[in-house]
Amino acid sequence: MKAMQIPHYGPASDLTLVDVPIPTVGDDQVLIQIGAAGVNPVDTYVRSGTNNYTATFPHTPGNDGAGTIVKVGANVSSLSIGQRVYFSRNLTGSSAEFALALPDFVFPLPDNISFTDGACLGIPYTTAHRALFGRAHAQTGDKVLIHGATGAVGLATVQLALAAGLEVVASAGTQEGAELLEGQGVAQVIMHNQADHLAPFQSLDTGFDVIIEMLANINLDQDLKALKKGGRVAVVGNRGTIEINPRELMARDAAIVGVALANTSPAQLKEIAQDLYYQLAAGALNPVIRKTYALTELPNAHEDILKPGALGNLVIDLEV
Ligand code: NAP
Question: What is one term from the GO cellular component aspect held by the record (predicted)?
């Protein structure tokens, strides 16, 4: 099969196309023919060995994907050959024609969702769901800031929050991003690169019940001042350190919670996947794909995912 691989930690330009055997399915595994693979920032951290991520080599990048199950191990009863699925984790890398996965991370894909859309679900929508509901405990009527809403996780959070009847304020870094968010139905868009963009929300009356934060090392200090009493900041993204004043938390009985998809239990993943399935099938969730790439264009996708000016998901289309 064709796969993109890198022999050592290195830049995206070191990724090359290789021909390798199709992996052999173990008793507790499934083999998936990949229709499309999602590209997420974490793929670049693993490839380059940054942000505490490690890899074994040769490394085929990619956690996310969607496709068809072509083999099931002897002990697997929850999934069957021919089933359309998406996955949030796999054993061999999704930048390839086939990947092995454990059933706990593989979920049914509704018939109305294409493989390219399905490739956007694993990390972005699962993380968004867990951040919003599992960690920040958002409830109908809550006022929520999605701080960094133009990327894959941000847009998923916007769609889940609107579908749940939350009052959504969302931030963008570019005018195009702001227009994208307005098109998603966000009534109030703010610009996260403008100084004091949170000032109008920094009172107990105008603040947020929940902030879903995509760049905590830049924003956390100001976020705390924009919480209502009992407010929660869920840290999804962070690329450095920041000084905060804990008194802001005390004054509001507020909380900062961390979110790591890797800590989500199989039971929680299943529950989230069931809710996503229902909402996807009903048309309430619609992944936004900014760009699709051929498998050999993976280096471009790894470079693009870290550039400012996000406008949705980046996807490798294995069917072209
Ligand atoms: P992405 O598609 O690259 O989007 C990045 C987002 O960050 C964009 O919306 C971008 O907005 C925004 N951003 C840039 N500067 C910002 C600022 N000063 N304040 C607020 N937001 C800012 O990435 P993603 O897939 O959505 O992931 C977002 C972050 O969460 C990444 O750091 C990723 O590693 C992390 N993540 C964590 C988990 C977890 O389990 N904790 C899971 C998935 C992702 P503009 O481009 O419009 O400026």
Answer: cytosol
Q: What is the pLDDT of residues 209-257, one digit of tens each?
A: 999 999 999 999 999 999 999 999 999 999 999 999 999 999 999 999 9
Stretch 96-103: mean pLDDT, rounded?
Answer: 98
* Structure tokens belonging to residue 214: 């995509």
In sequence order, the 6+-apart residues with CB closer than 8 A to the CB of 12 are 44, 47, 298, 299, 300, 302, 303
Please give the distance, rounded to the nearest whole angstrom, from the Cα atom of residue 214 to the centre of ligand 1.
5
Q: Give the nearest ligand 1 atom to 262 CA.
A: 40
Q: Which residue CA neighbors atom 30 of ligand 1 most closely?
A: 237
Displacement of CA 28 from its chain's centroid (Å): 26
* Region(s) of the chain under CATH 3.40.50.720: 124-262
Q: Quick one: 124-262 is in which CATH superfamily? A: NAD(P)-binding Rossmann-like Domain (3.40.50.720)
- Ligand 1 atom nearest residue 310's Cα: 46
Pocket-forming residues, ligand 1, beta carbon under 6 Å: 40-42, 123-124, 127, 147-154, 171-174, 177, 192, 214-215, 218-219, 236-237, 259-261, 305, 308-310
Give the pLDDT score at 34.
Answer: 98
* Nearest 10 degrees: Cα torsion 63, 294, 288, 219: 60
CATH number of the structural domain 2-120+287-317 = 3.90.180.10
Q: What is the per-residue pLDDT for 137?
A: 98
Single pTM value for the model: 0.98
Q: Which residues pair with 100 in a beta bridge?
A: 31
Instruction: Locate the ligand 1 atom nearest the alpha carbon of residue 312 and give its number.
Output: 2
Yes or no: say if 317 and 67 are a contact pair by the CB < 8 Å rule.
no
